[in-house]
Structure formats: C-alpha cells, structure tokens
Amino acid sequence: MRSADGTRLHARVFGPDDGYPIVLAHGITCAIEVWAHQIADLAGDYRVIAYDHRGHGRSETPRRRNGYSLNHLAADLDSVLDAALAPGERAVIAGHSMGGIAITSWSQRYPRRVAQCADAVALINTSTGDLLRDVQLARVPAALAATRVRTAGSLLKTFGATPVPKLADRANRRFVGYLAVGAAAEPEVGELVYRLFATTPPAGRGGWARVLVDGLGAQHISLSNLQVPTLVIGSTQDRLLPINASRHIADNAPQLAEFVELPGGHCAILECPAEVNRRLRSLAEGVGRQRISS
C-alpha cells in the first residue's frame, strides 16, 4: 500500500479472512517479525494485520530528512487501517514503543478516524512525551540532569543513524541489549532485537531517532481523542522508556481498560509474550462482548 505522501508500506495479514481484526505496529529499529509470538498465538482466532513503519523492514526508506515526522507516523497508520479494514469495520490496534506513539499521534491528528476504526487500543512500553527524562543511559547527580538529557538525546540520534560496522559489532550488541532487553531475558531475545536493529536501514533508524528525540520533549501528545478502551502495559526494568512513562499514560487515558506492570525490559512482547498475548485477547474479547450487547 502507499501512505498519503506516496511512500510504499509493507503489511502482512495472518489468520482467518473473516476474523476480528487486530492491528500491530512495532517499535523503532524493529519489523513485523518482532510480533512473532503475538501473531502465532492470535492468528488462530483473529485476523492479525502487522506492518513495517517507513524506513523499516520491507517498507520504503525515505532518504530525505523531511520524510519522517509524527505526522508521517500517524498518516502511515491511517493508510494501513484504510487498506486493511472493510468500510465500517473496527479493530483492536496495538503498538509497542514507537508503534504506541503512532497510535497516540494518530488519535491526536485523526480524531474522527478513532471512532471509525478503533474498538480499543493497547499501548505497550511506550511514551507520549518527555522522552529522555527517565531514559537510563547513565546515572548522574541531580544538578547535571539537564546535561544528561542533552547527552542522551545526542547519543541516541547519532547511534541510530550510524551504519553498523563489523568491527564494532560486539560493543553495539551490548549497548542495544542494555537499552532494549531486561537482564533476565533469554539470549535469543537479545539476538533478535540486535539483528532487527542492525538490518534496519541507517536512514530509517536515524530519521525516526531524530523525530522521537526532537519531537517528544516536555510537552506530551494529548490523549483526549483516544475515547476507546485503552490497555497500557509497562515493564519495571525498562531502561529505554521506563515505567513512569506508562504510568503517565495510564493516569491520562480517557478510558483506561487496564494498566499492567510486567517484569523485564523494554521488549515485553518478546520477554513476556504469554502475558501480553493474554491481555490482548482479553481486550479483544471484551470489546467483542460489548459489540454483541449493543
């Protein structure tokens, strides 16, 4: 499919053609594959629609800096919904990390489409703003907190846009693992996360890193238009988007369905897949019962 600006987007559909739709939006430097546990579990009963953000996976990678913004993130999600859902059909829309930011950006910019396309949403290991305040790259005295935030932002933008040379593979692997994966995660989780990072085009990584660091400052994305049941999942050892970010969303969601705190790091969909799957099923079943009763 193509987004509003013509960028080619890649999506895949799993499960029965007549199944209730669940849409999955992955995080930065990932791809459809990161949802493997959820697809394997949910596609037995639901029509699961997963897509690659621009600059990721098999979607097109814009080369110009102006090809990335929160507006693009929202418009791409809307294009996927327009292509994948039948007229009048609504879905559960789930986003991990940047995928969650896609959902909240979409709700802010396309309020009428929320009522048309969403029965409920799930926001997993994500944030609505103040992106760098709690990121745990290094602990410093309170007096140096502002410097730490600026340094973290510069590091994430630079690291995100840099090609991955073989000589630095081990150091890069450790850094990505430290940020994205909890200490108790199985080794294959870290391996998958790093492989997805390394195979994401540097232009895509850098473009989105700039957007998230520069575009999500102290001012938060408004949740006022997200007038649907909202599942919020955070992880207690998340170093990239610590649990405070999820708590903020839970405190401000207009229709909070459930707030879940899981153990582990930033990748709850890989580190605690059974629990995430159970909560997504419960959300889908809940809105299903609501549709029947109404």
Automatic annotation (TrEMBL):
Pfam families: Abhydrolase_1
Ranges for domain AB hydrolase-1: 20-271
One annotated GO molecular function: hydrolase activity
UniProt xrefs under InterPro entries: AB_hydrolase_1, AB_hydrolase_fold, AB_hydrolase_sf
UniProt KW keywords: Hydrolase, Oxidoreductase, Peroxidase
GO cellular component: membrane
Protein name listed in UniProt: Haloperoxidase
Organism taxonomic ancestry: Bacteria, Bacillati, Actinomycetota, Actinomycetes, Mycobacteriales
